[in-house]
Amino acid sequence: MKAVLLGTGTSVGVPVIGCNCAVCRSTDPHNKRRRASLYLQAAGLHIVVDTPPDFREQALQFRIPRVDAVLFTHSHADHIFGFDDIRRFNTMQDAIIPAYADSETTADLRRIFNYIKLEKTPGVYRPRIDFREVSGTFNIGGLIIDPFRVKHDHKPTMGFRFESDGRTLAYIPDCLEMPDEVVDRLKGVDVMILDALRHTPHKTHLTVENSVKLLQRIAAKKSFITHMCHDLDHEATRKTLPDGINVSYDGLTMEW
Questions:
Q1: Structure pTM?
Q2: How do residues 68-112 score in pLDDT, each as one tens digit?
Q3: Ramachandran class of 97: left when φ > 0, alpha when ψ lies in -120 to 50, beta otherwise
Q4: At 88, which helix (H) or strand (E)?
Q5: Would you say residue 52 lies in a domain?
Q6: Which residues form the domain of 51?
Q7: Torsion over CA of 106, 107, 113 and 116, rounded to 10 degrees?
Q8: Helix, strand, coil proportions of the chain in percent (round to 5)?
């Protein structure tokens, strides 16, 4: 497996428009955070989880060569509004690309991007997407994907556990509460990436402290917090975390 975190920021990104706080003015590149997205290579496949508004820039900066499938955690703007840029991969690959999501997210994607079709339209440059609703474990080639629900806002959002050739990764960018059964399903994964917005409580996201508690229960070989706002300076936050848990950053690449 090879995973690249394309973005590790919250919905407004970091720096925040019009903000002059120390993190937004920081020269540390680790404090520049685009909206959250993951790029995973496994079982000969190239998978993107969420297409935020920054997706085009992320694909250019991190030189994404192809996309075999897109997975969506939920339909909030910061996770879907770069979806149109998938059309470039349709063109390069001359292929329809499947998009996997639960029924609610699929319905939102079809409504918002109502011009998306399967077939080519002569003279028109649009994404060609095969929407596939998921409710349980599924495979894309040799990659096993286990979706699960966690509490985010008024309705659940999705997280994913990936497995290929005995290697595992789990990714949950938006989370307020995680059921015990989900914790049990994730225990001992190789890499765990989990929401941690800030230190002070929030109505829809984990705090750093609560995220750390969950990560310690999951006990992955490597754990990272993501979806961070400008309250968190990279280096200062890193120094507060226990062994085995670290702060992610845009472009963080792991291969195992």
A1: 0.96
A2: 999 999 999 999 999 999 999 999 999 999 999 999 999 999 999
A3: beta
A4: helix 87-93
A5: yes
A6: 2-249
A7: 70
A8: 25, 30, 45
